[in-house]
Specification:
The chain has helices spanning about 30-40, 50-55, 70-85, 90-95, 100-105, and strands at about 10-15, 25-30. It has about 120 residues and is mainly α. It has a two-stranded antiparallel sheet. The model has no long low-confidence stretch (mean pLDDT about 85).
């Protein structure tokens, strides 16, 4: 192990300190072993441990996304209009987006942080 890992094996750290080179802190494993070790130690970004959940303020959402074509107030207006029976195509034309964007808002797939009525 002192000269690198053989074949497709990785050098994993028991101490979780990547710069550490103490031989008793290192062990060999496959990529799958490495992924399982990471998850077991709570370093994975799976489910509720994902940074989007643990630090939502760091995630670009809504108007903070540099490609956003709508505003939060526009999304609220769209939700009200949908509640009153407005069509997807009609709203898409009015707000300059495709009807799929309106559909995704209606279904709660996008703009989830905007309060639903």
């Amino acid at each position: 192990m002192a000269n690198g890992a053989p074949g497709d094996l990785c050098v994993l750290h028991r101490c979780d300190n990547p710069p550490c080179v103490r031989p008793d802190h290192l062990f060999l494993g496959t990529h799958l072993d490495n992924a399982r070790d990471k998850t077991a130690k709570g370093r994975g970004i799976i489910g509720k441990k994902n940074g989007r959940y643990t630090h939502p303020e760091r995630s670009a959402r809504g108007e903070r996304v540099n490609t956003a074509q709508l505003t939060e107030s526009g999304v609220r207006e769209i939700l009200v209009a949908l509640k009153h029976g407005a069509g997807l195509t009609e709203l898409g034309r009015k707000y300059g987006v495709c009807k799929q964007a309106i559909y995704s808002i209606r279904e709660g797939k996008t703009w989830k942080h905007v309060e639903r009525l």
